[in-house]
């Protein structure tokens, strides 16, 4: 996802970002510079954000970036290992040894990327969530038949296999859409497909 969540200081997420701005957070500074319309949320242009973050980290004299496979975890210095679900088998085994496999989960929702050019503008409408803002979200309505077809395809879709250390524990606030759909035919209508813009 390209969203950093709400930017409103009336909630915890927005207030935290405002406090990070005051403290000079590099991530929030670059997010603000690369933001795209997203109603009350702070969302970024993914490629521009990534390029600016990479450039700033490369320029930082106290950070060494190594772009090669790490197969062992150094014991003599502090390191940040940011591999995510695409970690190689060797480094995954090292992390499993270090953590004894406790609390090691990559199971998360993946946000699909839909390009503007792929959307038939004759079939959509623009609206902001809860009618707050200038209509910055593209809404693609569905008939009941279209929704039923979508739901059935989603339920029957092929799933990516789990890694050896993964359990199907999901974070309720960021649940994969197919997991929501498995809870019932109408579940999506009260989640990501609720008619709130």
Structure notes:
By secondary structure, the protein is α+β, with helices and mostly antiparallel strands. The protein folds into three domains: 62 residues, no CATH class; 39 residues, no CATH class; 92 residues, no CATH class. The protein is built from six helices and five strands. Strands 1-3-2 form a three-stranded antiparallel β-sheet. A two-stranded antiparallel ribbon has the order 4-5. Strand 2 and strand 3 form a beta hairpin. It is globular, with a radius of gyration of 20 Å. The chain starts with a strand and ends in a 15-residue tail after the last helix. The model has no long low-confidence stretch (mean pLDDT 86). GO terms for molecular function: methyltransferase activity. Its cofactor is FAD.
């Amino acid at each position: 996802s390209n969203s950093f969540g709400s930017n409103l200081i009336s909630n915890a997420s927005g207030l935290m970002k405002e406090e990070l701005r005051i403290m000079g957070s590099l991530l929030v500074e670059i997010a603000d510079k690369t933001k795209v319309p997203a109603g009350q949320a702070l969302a970024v242009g993914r490629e521009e954000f990534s390029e600016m973050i990479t450039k700033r980290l490369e320029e930082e004299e106290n950070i060494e970036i190594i772009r090669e496979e790490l197969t062992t975890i150094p014991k003599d210095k502090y390191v940040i290992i940011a591999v995510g679900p695409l970690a190689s088998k060797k480094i995954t085994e090292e992390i499993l040894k270090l953590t004894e496999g406790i609390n090691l989960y990559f199971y998360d929702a993946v946000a699909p990327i839909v390009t503007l050019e792929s959307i038939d503008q004759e079939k959509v409408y623009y609206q902001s969530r809860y009618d707050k803002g200038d209509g910055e979200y593209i809404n693609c309505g569905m008939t009941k038949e279209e929704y039923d077809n979508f739901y059935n395809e989603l339920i029957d879709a092929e799933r990516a296999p789990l890694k050896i250390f993964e359990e199907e524990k999901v974070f309720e606030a960021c649940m994969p859409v197919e997991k929501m759909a498995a809870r019932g035919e109408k579940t999506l209508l009260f989640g990501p497909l609720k008619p709130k813009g």
